[in-house]
Write the structure tokens for this entry.
Amino acid sequence: MKVLFYEPFAINTPHFERCLELIQRHLDDGDEVVYLGCNSELSTCDVNWSHNNFICKSCIHRQEQGLSLIDGRIKNVSFEFLKSEQKQLIDKHSSKTFDNIDQLKKERYQDFDFGFATASSLISATRNANPDMSRYAQTVQKLIAATLNVYFSISNHLEKEKADRIYLFNGRFAVLRPAMRAAAKMGVDFFIHEVGATIQKYNLYKNAMPHNIKNRTKDILDFWNNADPTTRAQIGASFYEDQMKGKVMDPKYHHVKNQTQGMLPDNWDAAKHNICIFNSSEDEFSAIGDEWKLPFYESQTQGIQQLVNSLSAHKDQVNVYLRIHPNMANMKGDTIVRLQQINAPNFKAILPDSPISTYEMVRSSDKVVTFLSSVGIEAAFREKPVILLGNNFYSSLGSTYNPKSHEEAVQLLLDKDLPPLDKTGALIYGYYRKMSGIPYKYYEAETLFSGKFKGTSIEAPVIANTLGTVFKKIDKIRSGLK
């Protein structure tokens, strides 16, 4: 078997080390391996927006050091492999400007959605689902050039090498999605690698992004159906207990670590019907694909406003609380402002950095409303009626109410006798989140973003590493992305 590995982000742990893990496993099996790395050919990327030389050098050095640890022969070449007519097409498409992000998302070359790929990186970097396109016009043009470069180059490599499969990380961003689309066009299987249920495991997704709801739901159900029926429910339940106790992959990134246990909003009235809404940051989902679009609201903010308006007429019986997601504390744009401007006598917004407890709000609520948040399935596990207004990996597992319209959502929210649904779906989801993944053989994770491959910490030289870190921060500031 001939296997290609495309890895433009050698500077990042554990993505690069996971790539090395997979390379070594294929060599162990006697397969032929071709490594396609970046040697500063990309005009811009998600870790080096301004194409800073020190950042490139750090990335290239890590790439060289990591590959030197591989036992076996690999073909190591640059990913860039363009024909003259393809260069002309890149110049043509990368000269365009756009009035808004939706206009950018519509851009395609044949079946390649390079506009969505570009938008995904821009939105993630700015933490803004609707960035100012005039401000980032030059960045967008560089991203388009980079993403088309990857698309054409990987297509050419696949044709030349007659590869059986290709591996890449994540698949969502501007210089990653094109490799996935090129493989699909050429009829070559692609495998996307990502973190597993624990830092000591990884997951592989065949011919689909990890974010693909249909495929992931099938994986979740298959994983449950193949599990030991005598222990799977208990293990699934333990996932939610771990979440509440902060036993997560990296406690530093636990969203509720700064909240006060048991703390509720000061106007909480247990005598009323308390509805708690938990939102998510729009930037996490706005550039993945259409299946993540809300079914009957333009945005979470618009949906919350509409719900509050409909429920304000019931102010004597109903209180509505919005827990703004903690990871929105540093978001750009006017999303937080617009959420704070929602006004009704029975409505209160909880700011992202508030010490009010998410878990206590779930425990004390009469109903929980989510759009995209995992709090929805956590609340279902805790036997709360959950109204899910968006799409998620747990949407079809049977533990949430999934209304088809705003009117149906309001009807469910006002039904004080609405029972919680069977929490088996929550146990299925919890089991997957607790146990899924393939154990590493050669990589040993120490934290979420550090570890050793074959006992070695892969690092750039001290000076290059230090300067690279400094310039990465300067790079984001200069680009206006942070």
